[in-house]
Design goal:
Layout lengths: L4 E6 L6 E3 L4 E6 L11 E3 L7 E9 L18 E10 L2 E14 L5 E7 L2 E7 L5 E3 L4 E6 L4 E10 L7 E9 L18 E9 L5 E10 L5 E7 L2 E7 L5 E3 L4 E6 L4 E10 L10 E7 L3 E2 L4 E10 L8 E6 L5 E5 L4 E3 L2 E6 L10 E9 L6 E12 L10 E10 L10 H27 L1
Parallel strand pairs: 5-12, 13-20, 22-30
Antiparallel strand pairs: 1-3, 2-4, 5-8, 6-7, 6-9, 9-11, 10-12, 13-16, 14-15, 14-17, 17-19, 18-20, 21-23, 23-28, 24-27, 24-29, 25-28, 26-27, 29-30
């Protein structure tokens, strides 16, 4: 009994259902007719029940089988998740199914997620050098929408120490008696080699290199984790020193003990005294240049002595009236100078070292010939020979003059001279003319 016209029918959706057609549908009512509308729905399936397991792995320092706040968590420990299942053919029997496995993270945690409710077993893989303080395998019941927690504790085993050590002491034997005295300084950066005789069949024996190293600031060098046995420690002699103890000394390594061995040396009083001597040269890639051209300078420096050079300075004095610095090669520019402060070390064996830098001739050079002179100096407070500490380089710039423009510089003097010659010649001509008359 609806009047003809357009209507809208809307369904009210029920919990647990979803619509498969439009919830609201339009319809036209016609006189003496029945209009039909179809509304479809389907039930929403419920989620399968599932739960989680979280494993915690800790270092059980007090070995009480329980986690305490000050005990660290352990990373990279493997755990395996299994579950017992029945055998369909023989219901009274069961089989162990591996569900998942993984490793603990940096926080000592590992999660097994989306597990169907039931009883599971989590088993840790024991690592070498550790002892478990909780059961290696623990059963757990998974409940829907819940997280079950399992804690696994372990502690490190303290295995007996079966190796020994050799500690080398290197000292400056000032009184040359071969014994260390309390007032004698220790020596750093001395090399020692540790060797051991190894049998070849029955005889003879071969020398096997075990290790080597340098003494530290305290004059000590430690060889550790050495199997029990007989060894030989040999020092590498340095130039300018004399040994006051044998260069090679035999030592016996004892289990869990440190064997001390002392090596003494004294400076050779008959070594010739050498003084530091640095040298430098300078060159330029162009001996003549035009305004605006680039000039590249090369500074070559070296150490001619056997003394190692530290903290020396190179100073280049360029003529800032005529050139502008383009590239300083690592130096610092100030007040017409480029300075390089070099920390070293520079030894004789290092050979010749170079620095290059670049300048540009200014565009506004004066007419005539200009000499651009640059001087370099290498300096060190202990340098014994100043004769080879400086060098220079010259580049000549020539700028031609315009005869129709005023002369400047050296060409102005040339103009004055020519004028004087012309005036003298004119005077002589007039005198001769009067004489003839």
């Amino acid at each position: 009994e609806l009047a003809p016209g357009v209507y809208t029918v809307t369904e009210t959706l029920q919990t647990g259902w979803t619509n498969t057609t439009d919830l609201a549908q339009d319809v036209t009512v016609v006189d003496d007719q029945t209009a039909e509308l179809w509304f479809g729905n389907v039930m929403i399936p419920e989620d399968d029940p599932a739960g989680d397991i979280k494993v915690y792995k800790f270092n059980d320092l007090n070995e009480n089988g329980e986690y305490d706040d000050d005990e660290p968590m352990l990373e990279d420990w493997e755990f395996t998740l299994t579950q017992s299942t029945s055998v369909p053919a023989i219901p009274q029997l069961s089989a162990i199914a591996i569900i998942d496995s993984g490793f603990t993270d940096a926080g000592g945690e590992l999660s097994f997620t989306e597990l169907a409710p039931g009883v599971y077993t989590v088993t840790e893989t024991l690592q070498t050098g550790w002892t478990n303080t909780t059961d290696l395998a623990q059963d757990v019941t998974v409940v829907d929408d819940q997280t079950a927690e399992l804690w696994f504790g372990n502690v490190e085993e303290f295995l007996p120490y079966t190796d020994g050590r050799v500690l080398v002491h290197k000292f400056n034997d000032l009184n040359e008696n071969g014994l260390y005295e309390e007032n004698e300084p220790m020596l750093e950066d001395w090399e020692f080699t540790l060797t051991q005789s190894m049998p070849v069949f029955i005889e003879p024996s071969a020398i096997s290199l075990v290790d080597s190293g340098l003494t530290n600031a305290a004059g000590e060098l430690l060889f550790d984790e050495l199997p029990v046995g007989e060894y030989t420690v040999t020092e590498t002699m340095q130039e300018g020193w004399i040994n006051t103890t044998p260069l090679s000394q035999s030592v016996t390594v004892v289990e869990e003990e440190t064997t001390h061995v002392w090596f003494g040396n004294v400076e050779d009083p008959f070594m010739p005294f050498t003084e530091l001597d640095l040298a430098i040269t300078k060159s330029v890639d162009k001996t003549t240049a035009a305004p605006g051209e680039l000039l590249t300078y090369t500074l070559t420096y070296w150490n001619t002595s056997d003394v190692v050079a530290y903290d020396f300075t190179i100073t280049d004095d360029f003529d800032q009236r005529y050139v502008n610095v383009v590239g300083v090669g690592g130096g610092t520019v100030a007040d017409g100078k480029i300075v390089w402060n070099l920390a070293g070390p520079l030894t004789k064996a290092d050979g010749k070292q170079t620095i290059t830098y670049t300048t540009r001739v200014i565009d506004t050079m004066a007419i005539g010939t200009t000499n651009i002179d640059n001087i370099v100096m290498i300096s060190h407070p202990e340098d014994s020979d100043p004769s080879n500490n400086t060098d220079d380089a010259r580049t000549v710039v020539r700028v031609a003059g315009d005869p129709f423009l005023p002369f400047t510089g050296s060409e102005y003097l040339l103009l004055v001279g020519l004028a004087a010659v012309a005036a003298t010649a004119g005077t002589l001509v007039r005198v001769r003319s009067k004489s003839a008359a």
